[in-house]
User: Fold this.
Amino acid sequence: MASLTVLRLRSTDLVLIERQLRVKIAQLPHLFLDAPVLIDLGALAEGAAALAFGDLVGALKSCKLVPVAVANVPDGLRTAVTAAGLGVWRPPTAPGRARGDGDSPEAPPAEASAAESATTVAPPSEAAPAVSAMPALSRSPQSHHGGPMVVTQAVRGGQIVYAQNNDLVVLAPVNSGAQVIADGHVHIYAPLRGRAVAGAQGLAGARIFCQKLEAELVAISGAYIMAEEIPAKMRGKAVQIFLENGECQIAPL
Amino acid sequence: MSKVVVITSGKGGVGKTTTSANIATGIAQQGKKTVAIDFDVGLRNLDLVMGCERRVVYDFVNVIRNEAKLQQALIRDKRVDSLYILPASQTRDKDALDPEGVGRIIEELKQMGFEYIICDSPAGIEKGAQMAMYFADEAIVVTNPEVSSVRDSDRVLGLLAAKTSRAELGGPAIRTHLLLTRYSPVMVKRGEMLSVGDVLELLGIPLLGVIPESKAVLQSSNKGTPAILDETTDVAQAYLDVVFRYLGQERQHRFIEEEKRSFLGRLFG
Assistant:
C-alpha cells in the first residue's frame, strides 16, 4: 500500500514548525524516520509567498524526513519548489481514485485524493497549531465505515503495525520488540509484551485494552509509561490504559 | 513434490548447521532424495559437519554464476545414498547470492527429483539469511532455551511471515516448526534456563522436538559424522524422533524431563 505523510503548514515560522515536528517525531521515531513527505501549502493561502522554501526543505531533512512533493503551490513559489528538486502535487481529478478504507470520505474531493492513504504530521492538540491535523482526525474513529483494523497473527519483534485513522484489534500476542500503533484505540486479546501506542495523532480519549499486560511501553497521545513504571499488581493482568490529567492510568478490566 | 525447508534462527551458535546435517541425513535415511544447501557463503561449515570438506571442488556460488554445473557442485554423501550436499563458497561473501540465481538453482534441484531441499541459513537477518528463507515452504526455527535466542527467533518468525516469496506473492503462509536445542532439564529445574513451556508461550509455534545438551554433538561435528548416525546417543535418538515427527509419524516428546538416575548411577556418576 502506498503511504505518504502529509505535512499541512499553518505557519511560515520555520523555528515553530521544526520544534513541533521534532516533538511529533519523538513520539514515533520509527514511523517518521526517512519518511517521504508531501508538503501542503493550502492552509497558508496568501501567506505561502512569505515562506523561505529552501530553508523549509533543509529543516525537514534535518528532521530525517524526505520531502518529495508540494501540494497547493502558489504560482510565485513554483520555481522555488522545482529548484529544490521537489514535485508539484496535483490531486488526481478522477474522484473514484480515492480509496475509502480509513481515509477521509467526508473531506472535499481534492482533500480526499491528496490524503489517499496519508497521515498528517500534527502537533499535540494543546499546542498552537502551526502544523495541524487533517480534519478527519478530529472525528471519532468509530465513525469510519471500514471498521477497525484487525490483526490475527502474532506481531513479532521488529514488526510495526499501524492502524491509521483507525482502531486496531490484535487477536494474537504482541511480542517484545514489536510495536502496535493506532490513531484510535488499541485492543489486544492476548499478551502485550512489546509497545502499544493509542491516539498516535493526539486523540486524548484513545485507550489501550489488553488481556495480559507485560508491555515494554504503553503510550496514549504522547504520554507514556515504561515497563518499570508499571505497578507490580498490574503486571500480567487484563487492563485498560487511558489518559487522565495528561497522564497514563492503568486500571484492571 | 519437493519441499524447501529452511533451518534458521537469527542467533548464531544455536545449532542450525548441526540440525541441518542431522535432519538432512535422517530424512535421506528414509529413502527420500535430499539435498542440504549451505547458505553461509564465506564461512562454509556444513561440509565439515557432514565430513565431505575434502571433496568440495565447485560450490553454490560457482553454480549461481554459471561457472559450474549444478551436478558438478553437488557432493554425494558416502554413508547415505540419497543424500547430497551443495557446499558454500569460502572465498565470496553473501552479496554473491541473489534471488534469481538462488531461485534458479532451487528450481533445478526440484527438476532433478529432490524431495527435500534443506537450506542451512547463516546467523543474522541480513542477506544470507533472507536468501536462505526466501523460497522456503517450511521453516524449522532452531532456538536455545535462553531469552536472547528466543527474541531473535521471534524476529526471524516475523521475517518468515513477511520477507519470503510466499509472503510476497500472497501464497499460503510458511509452515513453521520450533526445534529447541541444547536443552538441559536440570538447569530448567534450577531456574537457570527457560523451560519448553516458556519458549512455546513466547513464540507460539508448534514444537517439532527437543534436542538435549550433549557432548556427542561436539564430537560428531569434529568427526564429520552427523550425530544421528550413532543411534546409541540421546542426541541421535532426539534427532530421529524429530525426523519421524517431521515426516508425519506420531512420536512422544522426550528429553524434556530430568532422567531418573539409578542409585548406582548417582554413586558413580
Notes: Confidence is low (pLDDT under 50) at residues 93-144 of chain A.
